[in-house]
Structure formats: structure tokens, C-alpha cells
Amino acid sequence: MLTENLKSVSTKDNVQIAIWHIFDSKKQQYLSNNSTYRAQNIFLTHGTFSDKKTCLRIAEYLAILGHHCYIMEWRGHGASSASKDKFNFETIATYDFAATFDYLCHQLDLDNLHCVTHSGGGIGLIMFLIQNPDYIDKINSISLFACQAYGAALHPINRVKIFIAKYLNRLSRYIPAQKLKLGPVNENYHTMKQWYDWNLQQNFHSSSIKQSDMTKSDMNNNGVPHILSDTRPFDYRQHMPKITIPIYAISAKGDQFISPTLGCRALFNDFNNHANIFREYSLSNGNLDDYTHSRILNSRHAAKEVWPTVAAWIDKHSD
After folding, report:
1. pTM as predicted
2. Out of 163, 167, 183, 192, which could bridge 49 as a Cys pair, Cβ 3.0 to 4.6 Å?
């Protein structure tokens, strides 16, 4: 019997973030009598235009296997409260992820922690871990569905499309997600601008953090510490190899715009970890579908052939 509980946690900028705990109560009762099995704890989160429903079906699948799943909804999405101030991907990484992982790791004191993310949720996780490297050793594995930050414009046609999308979004101030059938949550221009800029400029720069903010001091020629004054934007891309957690990166051949395989592969390569695995799902690779950005996580075919590989990745990296 699947059970779903809601917990709200407060961020440092006073936004209430919804965390949904999903587990199979009967399965947990059965497993409690099996001393050879340890349930894993799985953090999940969505991307833009989305809410917990994006992750709910795979969370239920993993819960039925005996795991505890915790879905975080971004500010202004689902049951989380709206932010008084404008926000972007980095705001979510800096505040929403921080409040959630503080709750999971310090209040619930969870171990055996794994992460499963879709699209922008993976971007937020990467930025959060680079900002907070102490959490890297607390996570056993990561599964990234359709995640890229700076590789959607590698093809000239896509570059033109993103430029036009940015221009139109700037005029309209928000993207009507429901009308365009992108998802249940409209996103404003301020949130999306960071994604447009990363892809058009092909970088992964912070919009608010400077290099000197993350590197507080260095040694001068005399061996005496001094404060750096590097005002360049902090470059997350340079620090991605510090994330040594085993990563399973999943791309979809039919995802031609938001997270094309070339973009997902570019992000994957920057981790530079030979223990990581990259896989494109496509008919040409013997899979059931070429998939799209949404179907790679939520579809009958994904449930049949993609979800079990995520469960296997979690099992492989369980304590």
C-alpha cells in the first residue's frame, strides 16, 4: 500500500518547500523482518514547467521495490509556496536544495541516499553540490534524466530557435506552459533567462556568485594568505569533476531541443569520471522508442525499459 506524506521546510529566504515522502507501508513492514535488506532513500526532483507529478510514477515504482522516495517541488511549483522575489535555477540550487538536503541529511539523518532528477532538476543538483561539497560523500549515486545546461545550441538551427525563444519570452514576460502543453506551471522570463544564456554562450556561469566568493583566500609570494578579488562570474563547469558520485546519465534521441543528446553528452563528459555511464535511448540502439524530453521519464515504454536500469544503478551503489 503506497503512502504519501507532505512535509514543508523553510529556506533561508523564507520560502516553504514541499517534500513528498512516498513509500510502500506493507513492503516496509515485510522488509523490516528481512535483516539482509536495507531500504535506500531516494531524492527526486523535476525541472521547469513541472511539479511532483513528473517524478511521481517512477517514485511509486521505486517505493514498491522497497525504497523511501522524497520528491522536492521547486518554489512556485506544486505545493511549495511562491517566492516574493524573482528566481532562477541558481536560486533553487542555493536555497531550495539546501533546505531540502539539510532536512534529509541532518534532521532525518538519512544515509543510503541516491538522487534521481529530470532536466533542470539535475542542473540544480549539480550547482548545489558544487556550492556545498560536504554533501558529495553523503550521496551514493545520481541518475540524470535529460539533463544539459550549455549544449542545446550546438546545432545552428537550435541556436536560432533558442535566440528567438529568448526574444519572445522577454516580450511576453512568461511562457504559458499549460497553453503550449509544456506542463502545469508557467515560467517567467527571469527564471528562463539563465538557461537561454548558458546555451547561447555555451558556458555554465553563475548569475550572482563571483570567483572570489567561492575561493576565499590564496597564498601570495611570501606564503601569506590574502583575500582574492576575482570578480569574474563563478564557473560551475570548471568544478564539475569534483562531483565524484557515480552518475548514470540518460538522454533521448527524440529530445531535439531542450536536452539533445549532444548537450547531455557534453555535460556528462565534463564530470570526467570513468565510473559514470551515459546512455542514449533510441530505436536505433534497440530500444522501444526514440523518446522525447518528457517521455524518457514518463511513458509506458520508459517504465518497462528505463526505470529498471535506474533501480539497478541504485542497487549497484547501495551500501
Report:
1. 0.93
2. 183
